[in-house]
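job 3f2a | input accepted
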Amino acid sequence: MKGIGIYTLDKPVEEFQEQELIEFSESRYDAVLRTYGIRRLFPNEVFYTATKKVFLGNEADEAIVSVLHGMIYKVLFDFVHASIEEHEKFRGKMLPYLQAEHGEPTETRELPSGARLTIWDGDFGNLIFDSNPVHTSLILTSSSIRPKKIRELWQPPLIWNLGRSLLTWNASEHTDDENTRWCCLRAMEWVNWPMFLSPSLVPIMLLFWNWQIVALILVVCNWMWHFIVGRRGRFVSVPLAHMGVYSVKAKWIICPVVAGYFYYNGQTVESLISLLWPLFPYAALIPGVSLLALLVMPPAPVRPVQDRFMTALGYEPSEERERP
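job 3f2a | predicted structure (324 res):
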């Protein structure tokens, strides 16, 4: 699948009829930024509203085409769901179709918010199926954007390279598809980063406060992060996002150790919370619990955060996109 509907990657805008693509006005750019957090990433990038926005019998609530040098390089269709049942029905229809088109996904991920991310990499570029109980997005990106050359001012010693691989993500050591997938995964985590880190932090916090205070701190921190940082990706940090992945993996050591400590001291509630907290992402998929999860972890657009991560890695439009 090299396009969504009639909107095909790397297709010249001039080949569309006037009513099929409507160029954004300045007020439209502002409205999309406020509503979805989507902004222009590259100089000379132009957004268009796609009017032919029916896909597999479902009409998208928002359809945006991003264009560089007169060529389509990204297509976004966003579908809003009125209920969890509608979301599951839509997902059950869309996912088999995408698997039939592209085969097994390159990567899948479930987040504490209940969002489910499915990614396909191919020669055409990258397809992201971002699904949660509120809305589902299809994001198709062309492979014709390439990272700019990353210059090394000095050649670091071997031990520095080993440490750097643990502390940050080096885009020059990975393929474009790997970098795109890394940015997308980190963006999904970044929009609710306090909650993402919670599996390793909550058991430790329970050593100092009771579970009610810990829950309040977690909710307040997550909402503050949502408005200050995560909602539109005002700030991203490649090293912090990369280290966050390793810190969360520590939950498989921290949780059972702390749970054992609480059990030994007769604190059964704290012991159960510490032991079972890593299962929260799966519990959030239960219909009743997923509604509560939305109150704790407000949904936020992933694309603007992903774009900022890609910029932080050094991505820019390739000269290959320019037509003679």
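job 3f2a | Confidence is low (pLDDT under 50) at residues 147-165, 317-324.
job 3f2a | closed
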